[in-house]
Amino acid sequence: MYQATKHMIDLGHRSFGLIGGPLSYMTARERQAGMLDALAAAGIGEDSIWIEQGDWNIGGSYTAVNRLLDRAPRPLALMTVNNEATIAALMALQERKEQIPEEVALLGFDEMLWASAYNPPLSMVNQHPFYIGTAAAELLLARMQNPERPIQQVVLEADLIVRKSCGA
Known about the structure:
6 strands; 15% strand
């Protein structure tokens, strides 16, 4: 999320909204922290940052997006932390007839097969679920073969896929 936020900053965005997830989840906390760290490094203050927590579902995220879009002033760059939040953002923006990226820039988290076919094509963070699943399966099989094996943590890098929805 740090890399994605930095990209948005480099494009000139200065007012940010995040549709986050429940902070009881480590991934929600880490993604939010990555965004906030990038904004702080760029000198963008709290008066230009709005965060609403979704619930990892489309319904809760949709409500959170609308809370952000109802603010005055409101964020002009919107970021999401998962597929459901991205879908919710698209739904809310379409209902309001908001133009992406002309009126609101959008950058999502979790690449979706159809993201490049959307108009405009969606910029996304891709955390490579296939590789995550493969690593998890390998660790599980190794643990099943040797239950005394020490717990191992694997961290895989995510990639930013730049398309047109953020104004690039």
